[in-house]
Amino acid sequence: MPSDPATARQGVRQPFLKQEPAEVYHARCQEYLTSHQLADFRKCPLLYRRKQLGLIPDLDRSAYVVGRAAHTLILEGRAAFEAAYALGGPINPRTGQPFGSNTKAFREWAEAQGRPVLTDAQVELVEHLEAAVRSHKLATELLAEGVAEGVVRAKYCGEPCQIRMDWFGPQCGVVDLKTCDDLTWFEPDARRFGYVHQMAFYLAVLAQAAGETFPVHIIAVEKKEPYRCGVWRVSSSALGIAQQENAEAIERLKRCRELDHWPTGYERLRILERV
After folding, report:
1. Domains detected in the chain
2. C-alpha distance from residue 50 to each of 26, 54, 57, 59, 207 (Å)
3. Are 72 and 81 a contacting pair, CB within 8 Å?
4. Consecutive 10-residue runs of the chain (275 residues): their mean pLDDT?
5. Phi first, then psi: what are they for 47, rounded to 5°?
6. What pLDDT does 96 receive?
């Protein structure tokens, strides 16, 4: 992996890729369907609709903050990381140690920063994650050349869609970076959280814009000792099944929109058979 991933970006020029701040991308979610919106719809059409109307706010848990910070450091480099986040906190002059994150002094300092704040403990964790990815040979090769946070917009299944890929390279294709609690359970967690469906959506939208298909990889790193890192290539058969299910979900979404009918998916009687 290059010492600064920003250097690697210079070697990749793709006309279908856009570079824009995350807030610009998210502001256009009312215009374009995203993988997360489609995942909400597959889970529950009513959930999708209530989020779309702003009736269910997105939660910003501390784990999400650490995950985003890790993405910035690993994929965009140290300079981007330090520009995006306020690190550490104020020092207690009596003890010479940082104020705790629950103290008034820390809260006042954090509010004055004008950007997300990471405590010393969070910075240490993010740096452990970056070191774990950097020490993994396959992960290093995947991230040797490419573009971080590339945005693509295209019409897919008749719907305007947008994606923001963690990493894209002409040779490695789409690379998604995941943080997890325990790498042992990553594969069942990937099924549980719909990662293959997310990657299938990315690949389908990308294919519409680029006119070709690319491989798909996932790098996963665990957020505890020993900070194991693993790399998976998503099989074409798994992507094909997920892509078909995504396409079917988009057709259902169109019908729900036409009828303005948003079911939960649990209206009918179900039979519980397994014990």
Report:
1. 14-56+135-265 (3.90.320.10), 60-127 (no CATH)
2. 17, 6, 9, 14, 30
3. yes
4. 47 80 94 98 98 87 86 97 90 86 85 89 96 98 96 98 96 96 96 97 97 96 97 97 98 98 97 86
5. -60, -45
6. 86
